[in-house]
Write a sequence for this structure.
């Protein structure tokens, strides 16, 4: 078994914050040590697209002089996804063909982090257009998993998973439309929280989603612990989590749910997580989830309806001409790619799966609206679900896109995608007690709830974290 250095993630951000407030540590010291770690890992892992050494050190020193140690995130070094606007920086979405988007002000999520005392030390890598689960692009290259450089870090917030998982960032923030926070968290051995779509302001982040998948998209943190996720969420969210008056609740257990688990370690972690809640007095409530099979098959149709035309437009330019997926396929076969192969897979699927009529789009969208209403009511204010984040551990480079972008119902990915199309807050938690005996990788367990029940979610997640770590 691999002997991963989990001590890289200890203390967590909450622990660092206590040290900063006691004066045991300065922000400048903490920021310097984290930047140094990113710089040491960057040549092999390639988690960052930009490191803000000078700016971050100046901000940390200013915070130390200010003495305002009771800011919620005082002096904590963090990273942000490359698709989040930063004043004076460009968003490229990892693309060589798309014209970079200049930003004159910070995205709202970044503004809130800085106002709370966090120090942005780096931007993190993404797959091109942030639409696949392998963080690779022709502009910045490939990000590798901090636990095993031969494996994927996940995507699309893969650089965040790598930076937090390697100990280079005390926490990070990413976006999630089909698992893009929780996949990297699961693969890199960290916590990832996807709130519901209306919880965190998306102003200044790329892309601006306005179609039917707007309710699938959310911004949230990747952290070293559940309590860190709650800490950061309470800064970036419009409504912080209220205190939980009564512990316990219902454990909703999906029946007839299409779920595949490749590794025995995932099954063992899931069993331990479920028992942890039942032993705390949660009441088991079995519910029928067979309708999710049909919903899963509709996912690419709404994604392509919302994004395909924009992708073609953004990839077209006077320099390169109008983008043609077939011409790009030929270019890639002859060793002259102009976009990432994962994005090419999406563009090749477009003409095949994109709905042909507005009426068809309306019908599919209505199915998801109905499902969200039913499942939110089913979960209610006291219900949580516990599922594996993914049905697999981090695969080798080049394998994730082959697995995740194939047609049909894929039980490896049904659990995390359900969190998006049902607009459920969902948190992924590493299960270090149940490391895979061959790879040493930890499985990941997710807790989901209905919007408004986040206090229940965090309470359950903390119990599960204690049981599986």
């Amino acid at each position: 078994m691999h002997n991963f250095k989990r001590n890289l993630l200890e203390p967590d951000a909450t622990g660092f914050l206590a040290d900063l407030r006691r004066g045991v540590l300065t922000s400048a010291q903490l920021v310097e040590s984290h930047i140094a770690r990113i710089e040491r890992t960057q040549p092999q892992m390639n988690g960052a697209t930009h490191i803000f050494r000078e700016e971050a050190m100046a901000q940390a020193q200013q915070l130390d002089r200010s003495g305002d140690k009771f800011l919620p995130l005082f002096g904590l070094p963090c990273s942000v996804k490359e698709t989040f606007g930063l004043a004076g920086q460009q968003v490229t979405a990892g693309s060589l063909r798309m014209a970079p988007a200049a930003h004159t002000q910070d995205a709202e999520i970044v503004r809130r982090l800085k106002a709370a005392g966090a120090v942005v030390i780096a931007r993190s890598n993404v797959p091109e257009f942030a639409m696949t689960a392998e963080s690779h692009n022709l502009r910045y290259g490939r990000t590798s998993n901090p636990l095993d450089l031969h494996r994927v870090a996940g995507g699309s917030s893969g650089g965040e998973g790598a930076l937090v998982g390697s100990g280079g960032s005390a926490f990070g923030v990413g976006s999630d439309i089909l698992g893009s926070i929780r996949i990297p968290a699961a693969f890199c051995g960290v916590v990832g929280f996807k709130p519901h779509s209306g919880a965190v302001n998306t102003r200044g982040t790329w892309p601006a989603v306005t179609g039917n998948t707007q309710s699938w998209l959310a911004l949230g943190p990747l952290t070293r612990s559940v309590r860190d996720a709650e800490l950061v969420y309470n800064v970036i969210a419009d409504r912080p989590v209220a205190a939980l008056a009564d512990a316990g609740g219902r454990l909703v257990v999906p029946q007839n749910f299409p779920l595949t688990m490749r590794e025995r370690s995932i099954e063992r972690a899931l069993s331990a997580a479920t028992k942890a809640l039942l032993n705390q007095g949660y009441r088991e409530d079995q519910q029928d989830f067979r309708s999710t099979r049909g919903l899963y098959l509709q996912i690419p149709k709404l994604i392509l309806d919302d994004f395909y035309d924009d992708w073609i437009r953004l990839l077209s330019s006077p320099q390169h001409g109008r983008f043609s997926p077939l011409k790009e396929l030929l270019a890639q076969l002859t060793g002259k790619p102009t976009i990432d192969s994962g994005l090419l897979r999406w563009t090749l699927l477009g003409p095949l799966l994109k709905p042909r009529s507005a009426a068809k789009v309306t019908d599919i969208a209505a199915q998801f609206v109905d499902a969200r209403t039913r499942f939110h009511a089913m979960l209610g204010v006291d219900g949580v679900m516990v599922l594996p984040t993914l049905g697999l551990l981090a695969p080798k480079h080049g394998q994730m896109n082959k697995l995740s972008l194939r047609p049909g119902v894929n039980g490896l990915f049904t659990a995390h995608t359900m969190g998006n199309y049902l607009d459920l807050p969902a948190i992924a938690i590493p299960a270090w007690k149940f490391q895979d005996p061959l790879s040493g990788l930890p499985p990941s367990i997710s807790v989901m709830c209905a919007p408004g029940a986040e206090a229940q979610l965090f309470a359950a997640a903390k119990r599960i974290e204690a049981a599986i770590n």
